[in-house]
C-alpha cells in the first residue's frame, strides 16, 4: 500500500519531474544545434563472409559532441524520433553515406562493398522519401546498386501496399533492402513474404546466447531457414566469437557483422581496411 504522499515528497516529485523536462528540452536544443553545425558523423562496421573478407559495411551515426566526445545513437536516436528531428538527421545521414559511397568507387579495395544505411520508420513514411534518396544518389554520383536501406519491422504498421509501393520505386533506381533486427518486432510471415526485400538481419539478441540458450539457437536457425526459403540473404548481427560464427555458418548463414570481425570504425580507419578487434580508440559514451 502506498504511503500518503506528504508535501515533502510532492515537492521532491515536482523537482524531479521539472529536472527531467529541462534535461529533455536541453537535449533537444543541443540536437538542433548539432544538426545545424553538422556534428554528426558516420562510422562504418564491416560485414564479412565466413573468412573475414569484407563484403559490405553498415553506416552507424555518431555525434561528435564538442565537450563529451563521441556519443552513441542509443542516447539520441530515441529523442530524435520523438521530436521529429530524425527527419533532418536521417537526411544528413543519407547524404553523408552517398557521398562516401561515391568516393569509395575510386578506391579499389572498397569499390566492391555494399553500404547499408539505417532508415527510421518515420523517415521512410515521408511522402518525399523516394525523391530524397534519388536526389542524394544523383548529387553524390553514388551507384544505387551499392546502396542498401535497412528498415525495421516497425514500417509494417503502415499499409503494406504503400510500403511495398515505395520500396518498388526505390528498387527501380537499383537500391536494395534489408530488414533489420528481425525477430524483435511484430511482422507476420505473410507481411514479410510480401515485402520486396533482399536481406534479413538476425537480431543480435538471438546471437548473444546462441551457444547456451536452446531457444535462441532455434530462433537463429529458423530465421536462417526462413531467409533461405524466401531467397533472401541472411546477415547475423552482434557476432562476437568464433563459436557463434561457426554455429551460424553451419546452419547456412553466409554474412556476419560483429565485434569478432571488427567494431564500427571512424571513416579514415575504415578506409585503411584494418579491422579493430580490441577496444575502440575512443569509447562511445552515453549522455546520462
Ligand atoms: P542497428 O542498426 O541494429 O546496428 C547494430 C548495432 O549493434 C550498432 O550499435 C553496433 O555498433 C552494434 N554492434 C555491432 N557489433 C556488435 C557486437 O558484436 N556486439 C554488440 N553488443 N553490439 C554490436 P550502435 O552503433 O550503437 O547503433 C544502435 C542503433 O542505433 C542501431 O542498431 C540503429 O537502430 C540505430 N542507428 C544507428 N545509426 C543510425 C542512423 O543513421 N539512422 C537511424 N535511423 N538509426 C541509426
Ligand atoms: Mg542496422
Ligand atoms: Mg540491427
Ligand atoms: Mg538494433
UniProtKB/TrEMBL annotation:
Domain EAL: 24-278
Coiled coil regions, renumbered to chain: none
Name listed for the protein in its UniProt record: EAL domain-containing protein
Species, as recorded: Hydrogenophaga atypica
Source species taxonomy: Bacteria, Pseudomonadati, Pseudomonadota, Betaproteobacteria, Burkholderiales
Residues of the full protein shown: 617 to 904 of 904
Amino acid at each position: 500500500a502506498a504511503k500518503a504522499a506528504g508535501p515533502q515528497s510532492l515537492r521532491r516529485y515536482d523537482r524531479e519531474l521539472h529536472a527531467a523536462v529541462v534535461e529533455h528540452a536541453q537535449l533537444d536544443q543541443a540536437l538542433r544545434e548539432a544538426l545545424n553545425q553538422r556534428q554528426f558523423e558516420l562510422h562504418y562496421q564491416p560485414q564479412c563472409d565466413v573468412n573475414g573478407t569484407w563484403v559490405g559495411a553498415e553506416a552507424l551515426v555518431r555525434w561528435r559532441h564538442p565537450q563529451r566526445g563521441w556519443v552513441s545513437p542509443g542516447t539520441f536516436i530515441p529523442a530524435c524520433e520523438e521530436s521529429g528531428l530524425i527527419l533532418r538527421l536521417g537526411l544528413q545521414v543519407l547524404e553523408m553515406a552517398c557521398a562516401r559511397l561515391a568516393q569509395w568507387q575510386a578506391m579499389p579495395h572498397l569499390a566492391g562493398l555494399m553500404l547499408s544505411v539505417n532508415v527510421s520508420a518515420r523517415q521512410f513514411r515521408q511522402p518525399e522519401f523516394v525523391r530524397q534518396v534519388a536526389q542524394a544518389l544523383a548529387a553524390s554520383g553514388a551507384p544505387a546498386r551499392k546502396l542498401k536501406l535497412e528498415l525495421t519491422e516497425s514500417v509494417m504498421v503502415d499499409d503494406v501496399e504503400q510500403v511495398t509501393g515505395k520500396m518498388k520505386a526505390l528498387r527501380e533506381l537499383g537500391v536494395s533492402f534489408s530488414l533489420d533486427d528481425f525477430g524483435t518486432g511484430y511482422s507476420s510471415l505473410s507481411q514479410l513474404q510480401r515485402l520486396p526485400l533482399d536481406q534479413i538481419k538476425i537480431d543480435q539478441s538471438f546471437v548473444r546466447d546462441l551457444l547456451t540458450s536452446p531457444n535462441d539457437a532455434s530462433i537463429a536457425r529458423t530465421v536462417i531457414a526462413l531467409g533461405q526459403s524466401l531467397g533472401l540473404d541472411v546477415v547475423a548481427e552482434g557476432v562476437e566469437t568464433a563459436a557463434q560464427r561457426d554455429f551460424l555458418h553451419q546452419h547456412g548463414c553466409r554474412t556476419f557483422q560483429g565485434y569478432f570481425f571488427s567494431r564500427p570504425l571512424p571513416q579514415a580507419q575504415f578506409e585503411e581496411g584494418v579491422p579493430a578487434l580490441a577496444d575502440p580508440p575512443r569509447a562511445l559514451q552515453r549522455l546520462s
